[in-house]
Amino acid sequence: MRRLVRPRAALIVLGIVVSVFFAYLAVRHVKAHETWRAFKTTDYAWVVPAVVLLVIAFYMRAIRWWALFEPSRRPPLGPVIRATFVGYLGNNLLPARAGEAAKALALYRSARTPIAESVATILIERIYDVLSLILLLFLMLPGLPAVSWLRGAGVVAAVGVVGVAAASFTVLRYGERPIRVLLRPLHWLPFVPDEFAERAPTLFVHGLAGVLRARVAAVALAWTIGSWIVLGASYWLVLIACHLHLSPLAGELVVVGIGLAMVLPSSPGALGVFEAATVVVLGAYNVDNSPALSYALLLHALNVLPLFVVALAGIAWRRLRTVDVVPVEDAPQIAPSVAPVDV
Are the CB atoms for 15 and 267 separated by under 8 Å? Predict the structure, then answer.
């Protein structure tokens, strides 16, 4: 167990260091009074449609995850949406994007979808996220200002495409044998049941339908790109709210910058990383760091606070629906002719 705890602790520490470093980058040239003045002059009426688009993007991404499962093995859409919400909430409460693990566990508990299969689909999700963001970046290039990190994005895209192609070819050629080799360490863990370790490679291959089946891949990729476009429209409305009258492509570029920055491990909610990525992107449009930070903080709040509001509302609703069950033999007998109700 110590062998498992130490790498996990190291990952958490690394995430905190990354967040602190990016937070420094976000605030190093900021004038606090200008940031506060930008907050006070924000037109918050634009926030309402922005949040509506955020909700639409959330459902599109949940459907994307559902579409990545093999058609004959897809869980019901309702549990997938709830598990997606758990994942979003977990990423804002736990470091190093541990919400992804909570997401797989939530789907197992609600729909009995094997964890190994869900983990495979979540891995494909992250690959699709990065590749689709870079694809959008290159498609938008003619309408964008000078982007200093374009060459790096191209390298990441090339490496990602080659990696996905090589992995897909290997699985298609050799079946689950390479997966069994990769997952062999599961047999060494005393708390992992032998049956789970034995079935995990087969289930993991089932979860790779998003790269092994062309139709599944095309549908999932379409949902992925569509969700980014809707998210970019939401971010553009927040730009208008902050009186940063830039083109709609600016909202999409903010999505690309934040999405690529999220690859790094960070503290809960990607605090610091989110803000620094936003400030860097808006710097390409010659937006001063102070109003850019105001926009970043508002945007981050819109991505986080609604999750907590919904979670707290759900907890309150469940508490209201909870009824104290009194044993029948201890319950007072009001009328002998009334049969006890089976709560």
Answer: yes
